[in-house]
Amino acid sequence: MRDDRIDARREAARLNEPVTEAANLARKLGLDPYPVNYWIVDHDEMNELIAYGGFQRRYPHWRWGMAYDRQQKQDQFGMGKAFEIVNNDNPAHAFLQESNSLADQKAVITHVEAHADFFANNEWFGLFGDGPGDDRSGPDAAAMLERHAETVREYAEDPDIDRDDVERFIDAVLCLEDTIDQHRAFARADERRERDAPPDLRERLDELDVSEEVRRQAFDEEWLDDLAESERADARLDDPHTDVLAYLLEHGRQYDEESGKAVEFEPWQKDVLELLRTEAYYFAGQKMTKVLNEGWAAFWESTMMSDEGFAGDDEFVTYADHMARVLGSPGLNPYKLGMELWEYVENVTNRREVVDKLLRVEGVTWRNFHDVVDFEAVQAALDPDPAIASITPETLAELDPADPRVDAEALDRARAGDIDIERYPWKVLTRAGLAERHFSLCKPQNREFLRRIRRSELERLARYMFDDEKYGSVSEALADVAYEAGWRRMRELRESHNDVTFIDAFLSEEFVDANDYFTYEYSEATGDFRAASTDPEDVKKKLLLQFTNFGKPTVAVYDGNFDNRNELLLGHQYNGIGLDIEQAKRVLERTYDLWGRPVNLMTVVSEYDEHELEIAQRRNREPTPTEVGKRIRYDGDDFETHALDPDLEARIVADDVDYDTKPDDWLA
Predict the structure, then answer these.
(1) Which of 142, 186, 253, 570 could cross-link 596 (Cys pair, CB 3.0–4.6 Å)?
(2) What's one Pfam family here (predicted)?
(3) What is the reported pLDDT for 431?
(4) How far apart are CA 316 and CA 313, in angstroms?
């Protein structure tokens, strides 16, 4: 047996207990994850898995080698260490690097359990396969991707098919892999909803029982044909196809050089396009919830490792360094932003729970709240019961088996010596006990959070409060505080939100101020980037634009018979951020390979007057651009740029992007 396999077996044996107990603790805390299979891999195997997106087999293509080389260089030059990778499947599969320290492995395992919970319960992952619920079979992704890999491999090795043609075709599809309707449940292209065609005027004339003589005199057949086509064109422009890959699968062609015209796809091409579209839908959930998902995993990892002491005393410094590196990564860090947002949700919910009780005390109103409430006394009253806060073998006798915060069965086992209480004190507590033990407003970093509540929020909470003299004292009111409120609210939100809806709902002025968020932008005047604004609405808008459509431009099919010449008309749904025109042209070249005829792209570009730009640079101020609609056309050989018809420009410009939507709205 090879030495590396012996090392892997030894590492697996060492991790058996942490894997089991992390899963048990996760469930005690209220998580409900898919079961997880853990695999021990070496350094090179980990890099291969990361390159393959977390799976062991993918279709043959050069992109995987490029991804592997990039990951290897990141490790080699210290630009980022891979601790783990986990995929969305049932059971989920997590891969641990055997060279990690035990502290790192424990951190990874707790992180993975939270990811598996998110995969199992978030509606956006449920759009691919069975959604959250009692009968959640999951996507069976590993088997699906392996089938896809084998299918593409067979085509690539088929002597009747040029392998280079297969790779080029995959290249073309991958340029458009994010042009799907990620807000709609996945369905095969031929199962997509059919659009309702606008009624033909002939049908209305039949209903009116118009005579043939009148029809011949008043309604010329050619005119009726033109009207019907015009109305169909308007309908297409008003309701563009957001699933570009599905549209190309139904209507796309390839250019045949011998005949000089577009011909039907080969069967292998339609097959490859369908399976790549399927994979795009599978990975859409991960792309749409990167901040939410990583923040969720980081939050519960920290709760288990730090707050509940899953990291032993001799491991805690190593773990703290691990977490500092993860949260301290530069740029827009999804772990940091996501964890801070989840902590904010927990704190806000717990604060409202406490304030709701305090406003029901005789003599306490929203107007005098900050004057009459003794916050130090409230804080002391909220601190967890000492018997719950510190559990040792010596204090087990103080726990009451009838207390709803205590797991009576586990307590009996602990008293009999069957549970190692020094390592796993949480085993003798219920979820209610753990919630009190880790109530967020009692943590040192959050002790001022209750005091910071604004009068406007107090007024809003009190507006519909009728039993506002329910309690005779503060202590009586605080005895009714539901310590689980924050965690319960977090579980509700993790079911329905994605990054866009979550940021829109919870990135508040208070959050922006407390965490020092700001926007930056490129300055045309100075030629570099600079801080632009600390206004919460600016910060929110900038973040929303980064996460809408995976942070990629939103492009849809507006017409497959543009100008009545079988040309494809794509529209960039402009939201104030312009395209990289040279990159857009490269994508049009690939799109031509999937259409077989000329392709057009509508967009809006910002143009600067050279004289005004020169004046702005001298005065160190930003010039004002002129936004101009353009249509870029590619015919297989050359590019042309045309002025965009004002009516078409109006259809692609978003005057006000509405982010205030939830999954039910998007799925309607």
Answers:
(1) 253
(2) SpoVR_C
(3) 97
(4) 6
Q: List, in order, residues 6 or more apart from 591 with CB less than 8 Å away.
A: 172, 175, 176, 248, 568, 570, 599, 634
pLDDT of residue 233: 52
Report the alpha-carbon distance of residue 313 to residue 524 in Å, rounded: 53
Q: Given the DSSP bridges, would you call strands 567-572 and 92-97 parallel, antiparallel or unpaired? A: unpaired
For the sheet with 92-97, list strands across it: 36-41, 92-97, 84-87
Q: CA Rg, the chain, in Å?
A: 30
Classify 95 as helix, strand or coil. Answer: strand
Question: CB–CB of 502/489 below 8 Å?
Answer: no
Q: Is 392 helix (H, G, I), strand (E, B) or coil?
A: coil
- What average pLDDT does this structure show over 138-160? 92
* Torsion angle defined by CA atoms of residues 399, 404, 408 and 414, in that order, rounded to the nearest 10 degrees: -40
Residues 32, 241: Cα–Cα separation, whole Å: 37
Own/partner long-range contacts of 14-21 (Cβ < 8 Å, ≥24 apart) = 14/102, 15/40, 15/96, 15/105, 15/109, 18/102, 18/105, 18/106, 18/109, 18/310, 19/109, 21/310, 21/424
Q: Which residues of 519-548 are buried (b: 16+ CB within 10 A; e: fewer)?
A: eeeebbbeeeeeebeeebebbbbbbbbebb
**Residues 629/585, Cβ–Cβ less than 8 Å:** no
The tens digit of pLDDT for each residue in 446-485 reads 999 999 999 999 999 999 888 878 899 999 999 999 999 9
Beta bridge partners of 630: 603, 643
Strands 555-562 and 626-634, by their bridges, are unpaired
Burial of 498 (0-12, 13-18, 19+ CB in 10 A): buried
Average pLDDT over residues 614-640: 84
Per residue in 233-257, pLDDT (tens digit) is 554 556 788 899 999 999 999 999 9
Structure tokens at 332: 């827009």
For residues 186 and 184, give the distance between their C-alpha atoms in angstroms, rounded to a whole number.
6
Rounded to whole angstroms, the Cα distance separating 556 from 570 reads 6
Q: Give me 215's structure tokens.
A: 């029809």
Give the contacts of 349 (CB within 8 A, at least 6 positions apart): 485, 486, 489, 490
Amino acid at 554: T
Provide the token pair at 198.
């606008």
Instruction: Map out the domains of the chain as residue ranges.
Output: 3-122+289-327, 335-515
Give the model confidence (pLDDT) of 552-567 as tens digits: 888 999 999 998 899 9
Closest CA to 28 of 289, 291, 310, 290: 310
Q: What separation in angstroms does the CA of 214 have from each of 18, 203, 210, 220?
A: 85, 15, 7, 10
Q: How far apart are CA 305 and CA 302, in angstroms?
A: 5
| Rounded-to-integer distance, Cα 487 and Cα 481, Å | 13
555-562 vs 567-572, strand pairing mode? antiparallel
